Amino acid sequence: MNRTLDFNQYQQGLEEDRLLGLRCKACATVTVPPQAVCRSCAGRDLAVEELEMRGTLRSFTVIRVAAEGLTPPFVVALVETASGAWVMGNMEEIDPDAVDMALMGRAVTIGSKSVPGDIYAVGDMRSLTFRLA
Ligand SMILES: [Zn+2]
After folding, report:
1. Same domain, 62 and 122
2. How many angstroms separate the alpha carbon of residue 78 from the centre of ligand 1?
3. For residue 1, what pLDDT band results from cuts at 50, 70 and 90?
4. In total, how many domains does the chain have?
5. Handedness of CA 86, 91, 97, 102 (dihedral sign)
6. How far apart are CA 76 and CA 85, in angstroms?
7. Do 43 and 74 share a domain, yes or no?
């Protein structure tokens, strides 16, 4: 399937400190990370757009039992980006043992870091990270 923005291009954008999304030309919804169709209307007429690297923390959890290769505890968060799309990533520079519901609604900046691939991955990849603004 031909994609307007493929996974490797999305990863390359993160490498360059750019968050790339897809804006639907039919309904204006932003989809990120990239998919073949609009997340709202399933439209296929999508344009690549560089998104602001900021958002609002909408939900989080503390991971205490992690998958192979990851070192717990750490905080995984859902962030509503300034573009309206929601993305998942890891909170940085925060003590997992000290977080509470006061995190909800806090402004964050969005970045990324390289994470090692596991036995199922083709190699290292970039993962989204968030820091309190
Ligand atoms: Zn759409």
Report:
1. yes
2. 22
3. low
4. 2
5. negative
6. 17
7. no
In three-state secondary structure terms, 62 is strand
103 Cα to the center of ligand 1, angstroms: 31
52 DSSP assignment: P
Segments forming the whole domain that contains residue 21: 1-51
CA of 44 to the centre of ligand 1 (A): 8
Residue 40, pLDDT > 90, answer yes
- Centre of ligand 1 to C-alpha 39, Å, is 7
Alpha helices in 16-76 (DSSP H): none
Tens-digit pLDDT profile for residues 88-126: 999 999 999 999 999 999 999 999 999 887 777 778 889
Side-chain half-sphere CA neighbours of 122 within 13 A: 3
Same domain, 47 and 72: no
Same domain? For 120 and 85 the reply is: yes
Q: Work out whether strand 125-132 and strand 107-115 pair parallel, antiparallel, or are unpaired.
A: antiparallel
Residue 19 and residue 1 share a domain: yes
Per-residue model confidence as pLDDT tens digits over 75-92 = 999 999 999 999 999 999
